[in-house]
Amino acid sequence: LAGGQALPKRKKVDFPTDSEVKSVEVAVSTALEKYAPAIVKGLRTKGWWASTQAVLPYALRRHLRDEVESLWHENCFIKSQSLRGTTYYDKENVYATEIDGHKYNFAPRMVHYTVRAAKVVPALIRQAFPDIELSDALIGNKLNICTGNGATFDAHLDTNIAEKPFNRKLTMLLYLNPKWQPSARGELTLLGEEGASQEEREAAGLPASLEPISGRLVVFWSDRMLHQVEPSFAKEGGLEDWRVSYTIWFCTHGDSDGP
User: Fold this and answer.
1) What does pTM read for this prediction?
2) CB–CB of 94/232 below 8 Å?
């Protein structure tokens, strides 16, 4: 239990058939290729892009959310930590895990989503930005659950932190919150580059407040875009109301030994 909250009945994860795996791969590829021109334009002109609606089919989003809840029931999450100066501290009411092959039994579609994105995104970005050599092999990811009670993330970049992978270049966020309402808050606020002028921020449409609606995709440069998460709340207090975000970091071929 987190925060003393009772959890709903555990949902059984349905393992995808071969044809269902193919449909997941097609859905992810189709979405990324469909929005690629807008993503590239946003990155080039503003340093970020966000969809205004869900980019994945409803059934897939529902399966992904069920798998997140399955991971929670299997105690796969730990308290999320952040770094202040040289000291780590626990983020209150924020829990995290990583998606890898070891979690396939509980989150098979999350694994397939990750693998497909790792194949498609670097190629799209390299084509549009030849000088940015994103790796096909080096990615990082983090699945976050905010349990309400004002859970928040302070303003930060996704680089220059003591957490692998160190050579992050592009951040891609997917939200999985089918029950989200404006009263739950938890908006992602994009702030812009450190030292940017007011005119530069306004030209980039910043600051931008993005609601964590289910299926929304957000993309920005990991090493340039300051961002924060506003306090989030869970009106009913249960797992189904908790805020879920899934981040994939695409990395360059540069030094990955540390900052």
Assistant:
1) 0.91
2) no
Under DSSP, is residue 156 helix (H, G, I), strand (E, B) or coil? Answer: strand
Q: How far apart are CA 26 and CA 45, in angstroms?
A: 29
Interatomic CA distance for residues 232 and 182, integer angstroms: 10
Q: Each residue of 197-250: pLDDT tens digit? A: 999 999 999 999 999 999 999 999 999 999 999 999 998 778 999 999 999 999
Strand partners, 217: 174
Q: Distance between CA 109 and CA 198 in Å, rounded?
A: 42
Angle between helices 108-128 and 18-45 (to 10 degrees): 40
Beta strands (DSSP E) in the chain are 48-50, 78-84, 87-97, 134-146, 151-156, 168-175, 188-192, 208-210, 217-221, 226-232, 243-252
Question: Would you call the peptide bond into 178 cis, given omega within 30 degrees of 0 as the criterion?
Answer: no
Classified as helix, coil or strand, 128 is helix
Cβ distance 47 to 192 under 8 Å?
yes
